[in-house]
Amino acid sequence: MLTPAFDSIVDRFYVAIDANPEARAVFKDEAQVARQKKLLRSWLVRFFAGPVRRQLLRGARAHRPCARPHRAPAALRVRVHERHPVGADRGRRRRGGRDGSMPVALQQSIHRLCDVELAIMLETYREDYDRALRTAERLATLGQFAGTVAHEMRNPLAVLSTSSHLLRRNAGDQPNVLRHVDRIERQIAVCGQIVDDLLALARDRPPSFETVELRPLFEFAWAQLPGHAHSLSLSIADDATVLSADASQLRQVLVNLLQNATQAMSEPGIVSIEVTRTTLGEQREEALRIRVEDCGEGFSADALEHLFEPLFTTKARGIGLGLPLCQRVVAKHRGTLSAATASRAARGWTSSCRGAERGVMRVLLVDDNAELADNLAELLASDQTQVYAHSDSVAALAWGRTHDFDTALLDVRMPLWAAWS
Amino acid sequence: MRLLRVCHPDARFILMSAFTQDAQLDPLLDHVDAVLVKPLDLSTLVEALGRGA
Q1: Best CA proximity match to A110, nearest among A78, A41, A64, A63
Q2: Chain A residues with CB inside 8 Å of B8's CB?
Q3: How far apart (Å, rounded) are the C-alpha atoms in residues A29 and A13?
Q4: Half-sphere exposure of A244 (CA within 13 A, CB side)
């Protein structure tokens, strides 16, 4: 996919170098620049092709110091790594450390390759990545105070709830009073739901997987939505009746989606749920697709763009937390949640869950202390957990680019590891 | 790590460090799910992973 872009990347790289007189002086003539370009392009091709080959790294040319700040082409919006401290031990720079570590110059060369690769990835995925980061930051910020607020609200809500119960008991047969008590209790339920959402936001607990029968779960979630005149149409394929998932979290997602569906239809209508087996991702992993559809007015283009952003809502009573929470839960089940407006004014939610179906968590474990990596791998490995341990950061990076995993357990300070900066 | 983060935006990232200043990082600000101090407390590790081992 990226191959057609390599030529322009290489050209921009050398345009940036050419702009610096000192850097330009390093190259003798155009023929040498052409050779350098050819070499860089071949590196890019091999670097993206799969795992890094040690033979390739050994043959890598040392980066020429050009007194230019370590910065890849500005046009690619590169964030650079810090230079490794260059010590006085010149032998180590050429040969590597006695412990077998790589020469500093080679490390720097690989750093620059990583910069280019990161630049391409950031450019390719920048929009989606920025949006995901913004959502995560808003959820995190909200979560910090949401828990406190939610706990503080529970006490007065408990008082309101018990008082309404006492009111109902003492109201006798006064219909006017009972009507108001009904209203109070409905609003208490709404507040309770908001508190539950806020607490779920603050907790962000990992799912606890178990085998879940889907039909009873759907019916239970539907029963949680009183006070509407809609009906439910449930269609579950024979090979998609169970899912390994966190039952309470999945129920939370379903209640949210079904509630949205019922509130979207002003006239009595049908909410349909369809469950089918499917595959997801390049590795075509087994998954279930759960589609929730109603006959509402559909989403506007603006709403579709912002549906999963915290605090975005199209409802007068909503606070815009339900869908971001649903999306986060589905993501923890290694799935995706998407919304669409179909023809005939129908609108639908599609949630696909995979991985969780097998209940196996894949952990990428990286620590340059090989013994510690081995120990942790042995401790963590089980029927439910597959551990891929690496003590070589370059090999781990190459593996991580081309393989899927659920959790990365990473040592912070390792050679060639740009950490979080 | 940023490369892996870009490739796997939905994955959980847990950092391990022997340096206390690393452990004092705010996981939320640094887009990681947890920062664990070495030597690792296994119960904390298992809790961070969200899975019995």
Answers
A1: A63
A2: 400, 404-405, 408
A3: 17
A4: 14
CB distance A270 to A310 below 8 Å? no
pLDDT in tens, B14-35: 888 777 665 556 555 556 778 8
Rounded distance, CA A310 to CA A259, Å?
Answer: 18
Average pLDDT, chain B: 72
Q: Which residues of chain A have pLDDT under 50?
A: 51-93, 343-346, 354-358, 419-421
- For B26, the 3-state DSSP assignment is coil
ipTM: 0.90
Q: Does B39 touch chain A (CB under 8 A)?
A: no
B19: its two tokens: 């340096």
* Torsion sign across C-alpha atoms A259, A264, A270, A274: negative
B53 touching chain A per CB within 8 A: yes
3-state secondary structure A357-408: CCCCEEEEEECCCHHHHHHHHHHHCECCEEEEEECCHHHHHHHHHHCCCCEE
User: Is B40 in the A-facing interface, judged by CB distances under 8 Å?
Assistant: yes
Which pair of tokens denotes residue A170? 């003492």
Q: Could you tell me whether strands A285-294 and A347-354 are parallel, antiparallel, or unpaired per DSSP bridges? A: antiparallel
